Amino acid sequence: MGNIQSGVRVPAHFRQPSLNVKIAICLLAATMLGLLFTACGKSAAAPTPTPTPVTPAPPSSASLVVTFGENPVPFRSSGCNASTPQGWYTTARLQETAGVTFTPSAFTQKLDGTVAGVLAESFNSRFGSCSGSAFTGGAILAGGAVCGVVGICTTSTFATYQFELTGTDANGHALTFVSPLLQFGPR
């Protein structure tokens, strides 16, 4: 090509791009190429994981713990009751520890591992409120406790006492609680 096109003279600065224009064009091309590589190099958006369904935990069951005032229990020659003053007896605190109210339906007492007919009583006849605790008759409140006196007033000799409590908790679970053995001291 010549200096004159179609009879018009083109100035030199239009015929040859200046160094600044060349640099600007190169920078623009490099930037576009970089953006192209960046866009192509990214992976597609990660799929959103499907949430795993959460199965609710089954409701808690009541849990009972007994604390005896003494174990072994010494034989006492007086103070048991008016008609039979001698025997083995101590305090018992029955605590609910899982935060679920328990309602007893049967209370069985055993001497030396055998159900004791002479101790055929109800739960309410042995257990009541503990000092300073909330109490509802016929129940052990969630996180609450009941207190009583256990053992036997007798002229006979026994080595152990144990009680068994059955009932239902506030979540509908049928439960049986068996106390640890209460050892009787020598007569």
Task: Describe the secondary-structure layout.
Layout: E1 4-5, E2 8-9, H1 12-15, H2 19-41, E3 64-68, E4 87-96, E5 102-111, E6 114-115, H3 123-126, E7 127-128, E8 145-153, E9 160-169, E10 174-178, E11 182-183
Antiparallel strand pairs: 1-2, 3-4, 4-8, 5-6, 5-9, 7-8, 9-10, 9-11
How would you sum up this structure in a few lines?
This protein is α+β, with helices and mostly antiparallel strands and 187 residues long. The protein has two domains: 9-41; 64-183, Immunoglobulin-like (Sandwich), CATH 2.60.40.
Jot down its keywords.
187 residues, alpha+beta, Immunoglobulin-like, five-stranded antiparallel beta sheet, four-stranded antiparallel beta sheet, 3 helices, 11 strands
Provide structural commentary.
By secondary structure, the chain is an alpha+beta fold. The chain folds into 2 domains: 33 residues; 120 residues, Immunoglobulin-like (Sandwich), CATH 2.60.40. The strands form 3 sheets. Strands 5, 6, 9, 10 and 11 form a 5-stranded antiparallel beta sheet that branches. Strands 3-4-8-7 form a 4-stranded antiparallel beta sheet. Strands 1-2 form a two-stranded antiparallel sheet. A hairpin with a 2-residue loop joins strand 1 and strand 2. The protein is elongated, with a radius of gyration of 44 Å. The termini are far apart.
